[in-house]
Amino acid sequence: MDLSLRLLRHGYDAVAADRAAHGVPPDAGAHATRLVGRRAVVVRSEAGVRFFYDESAAERKGVVPPPLGWLLFGRGALHGLDGDPHRDRKRVMVDVLSADGLGPMVARVTDELEAATTGWPGREVTVHPTLVSAYGRAVLRWAGLDVDDERADMLARRLAQQVDGFGFAGPAYARGWASRLWWDRWASRLVGDLRSGRAGVPDDAPAMRLVRGIDGDDRTAAVELGNVLRPTIAVSWLGTFAALRLAGLPQWRERLADPGEELARMAFAQEVRRTTPFAPVLAARATRPATLDGVRVRRGDRLVLDIMGVDHDPARWEAPHEFRPERFLTHAPGAYDLVPQGGGHPAGHRCPGESLTLRVLEATLRVLATVPYDVVDPGVDLTRMPTTPRDGLRIRVPAGAPHRSGRASIPGSA
């Protein structure tokens, strides 16, 4: 069976099922298969991950089929570029998403979540849509877009639908494309207003810096604007798993609620990313031959990065299938050992929003740790991509539950 079909059938367990079907040992560093009808080599060893992120050995352009790539990233997006065009555009994206400038956005996330959780006692709440709304309001206003709550929630839902559809999950895929087409039209008009000055957005606002830094027409800039806003909203999938994990580890609550325990929250966030990555694989194309872990790679072969395999590799992680945040309190993972959002050097194809993801999860944990709650249904469907706990994680918050502010002083939030 083609690996693409296994991904549709098995989701996050697809590569493990493919490896077993080919009679490949579970600890193998690489194996050959087929992806969308073409020969492919799945990699997960350090040598394989290094090859995947070596720009002289692998390229991205045209690898992800348009029905998937254009839905999630947009036509002509950074994710499908290589060489100088990729480096030049990524420089703009990294500048906008620099860690030094994220403080105000993280502060907004904290404010939105604290406002939402204040009304939780005595109610049953669904976590995922709550996070979509909070993250959406925060990132849109951080970007400099003047939108009220109702408009911000609508835009956040549109962007979340694009994320939810990328796994070809029936109606979600159709909703995702409807939202993608709507977004491209709306954002293209917005970019025109930004570039002409009609939008009245300050020159130093992130949205303005982005669209003026991107070479290309309004549609291309609109695509990349979405690729800055949407990943923040996509963190809601990880945030929902963070809420689930927190419910199962009550001994961590007091520590995570302590404003001074940022390291503990970051460690918890890293473990959420490691155990429940957004996607199970990434793809590229080999531009030169090689031999990886005894498997021959030919020029033109598809390369598949086994994210689940890398992040659950017993050679890299002790007890890899156990959730142990403490492993990150004293251990800084290597660039090729923890790859939930890609690996390698940040200047290459590693996700430019990785630091943003960690900061948003850290803020989310700080607030959630102050709210006592029980999970209604902890079930997770690993065949669904992307997945969340069932029904978006419904929780019950007892009436009269104490609510303590998780707010801490955030650098750059003034």
Automatic annotation (TrEMBL):
The keyword Ribonucleoprotein does not apply. Keywords: Heme, Iron, Metal-binding, Monooxygenase, Oxidoreductase. It comes from the Bacteria. InterPro entries: Cyt_P450, Cyt_P450_E_grp-I, Cyt_P450_sf. Residues 386-414 are annotated as: Disordered. Its cofactor is heme. Coiled coil: none annotated. Belongs to the cytochrome P450 family. This is Cytochrome P450.
